[in-house]
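Is this the right way to post structure tokens for a design question? Let me know if I should format differently. Anyway, here goes:
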């Protein structure tokens, strides 16, 4: 496999063995189980996660220092949760010395930048003990999620149980068992424009990254990337937190992850090139010229 999947030490398909976590998790419950284990084992004192905000499906970054708080933040919310905004606060006001953080690939890049160039973040970088990245093809503004759910899927935001992007569709699951699938050609125009120049699908900068793509329903694909990630993963495995299958034995497997990563990178590279040529005459689409 090429550079599109980033550097990694190992890759498996996995699922949490914790039934309580699995019940409300988005996929294999990897993120919540990793943090719950790390908290119990003293590897972290708490984690910055995307908690439930005031509006339905609008995440709010929170510092979770208990298993209950981690569990309350399970599941995917398809709009920005600015988790990095708490990175200073977590070490100062909350006084945490060993911090976990979950985030999209762009947020994992921000974590590493904060460690490399700690302007205004003195003594914060060393306290990041576990960075868990989630795969990400695109994200949406909150207003767009509202329109997709209420206008296109004709459901009330507060009656949605789960949202998911997979198998080429945007799925909305209602509390009474309703399921609405929207073709991605409907959702494309709602994506954040910033996501169209993003070249990372699988959170290359995380200690451990995970997403559903490549693995069967209810399971997750895991890339263990760093020394820290390797050590935490090995300990969590030894503690019985996960059941795993070799990636080569599952369908659709790494081939699909590679294909989607390549599609994202080549599509967004084109947008980058188009933007780079703005104002130079090349590719300029000015109707007055
Ligand atoms: P869980 O145990 O359910 O925990 C999920 C964790 O993610 C929680 O800690 C929660 O607080 C946090 N979280 C939820 N929403 C956000 C958010 N908006 N920003 C930051 N953290 C958040 N996977 C793919 O395989 N392919 C994709 O194309 C893909 N696109 C995604 C796009 C977005 C915008 C997001 C947020 C996620 C995407 N995912 C994608 C990841 C996938 O939806 C799951 O989040 C991931 O598989 C983890 O599931 P889990 O069961 O291990 O996590
Ligand atoms: Fe961030 Fe890229 Fe995902 Fe957009 S597509 S939310 S920029 S990781």
């Amino acid at each position: 496999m090429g550079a599109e999947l980033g550097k990694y030490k190992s890759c498996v398909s996995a699922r949490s063995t914790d039934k309580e976590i699995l019940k409300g998790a988005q996929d294999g419950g990897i993120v919540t189980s990793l943090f719950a284990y790390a908290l119990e084992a003293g590897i972290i004192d708490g984690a910055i996660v995307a908690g439930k905000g005031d509006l339905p499906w609008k995440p709010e970054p929170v510092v979770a220092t208990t298993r209950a708080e981690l569990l309350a933040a399970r599941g995917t919310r398809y709009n920005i949760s600015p988790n990095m905004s708490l990175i200073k606060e977590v070490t100062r006001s909350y006084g945490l010395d060993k911090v976990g953080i979950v985030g999209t690939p762009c947020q994992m890049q921000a974590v590493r930048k904060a460690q490399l160039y700690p302007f205004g973040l003195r003594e914060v970088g060393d306290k990041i003990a576990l960075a868990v990245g989630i795969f990400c093809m695109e994200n949406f503004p909150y207003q767009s999620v509202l329109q997709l759910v209420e206008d296109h899927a004709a459901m009330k935001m507060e009656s949605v149980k789960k949202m998911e992007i997979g198998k080429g569709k945007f799925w909305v699951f209602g509390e009474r068992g309703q399921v609405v699938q929207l073709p991605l050609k409907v959702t494309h125009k709602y994506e954040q424009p910033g996501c169209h120049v993003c070249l990372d699908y699988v959170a290359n900068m995380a200690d451990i990254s995970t997403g559903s793509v490549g693995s069967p329903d209810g399971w997750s694909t895991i890339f263990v990337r760093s020394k820290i990630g390797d050590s935490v993963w090995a300990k969590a495995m030894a503690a019985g937190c996960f059941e795993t299958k070799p990636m080569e034995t599952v369908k659709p497997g790494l081939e699909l992850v590679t294909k989607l990563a390549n599609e994202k990178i080549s599509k967004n590279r084109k947008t980058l090139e188009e933007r780079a040529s703005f104002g130079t005459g090349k590719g300029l689409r000015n109707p007055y010229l």
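Format looks fine. Someone answered above. Worth noting: The CA atoms of residues 11 and 146 lie 35 Å apart. The chain is about 30% helix and 20% strand.
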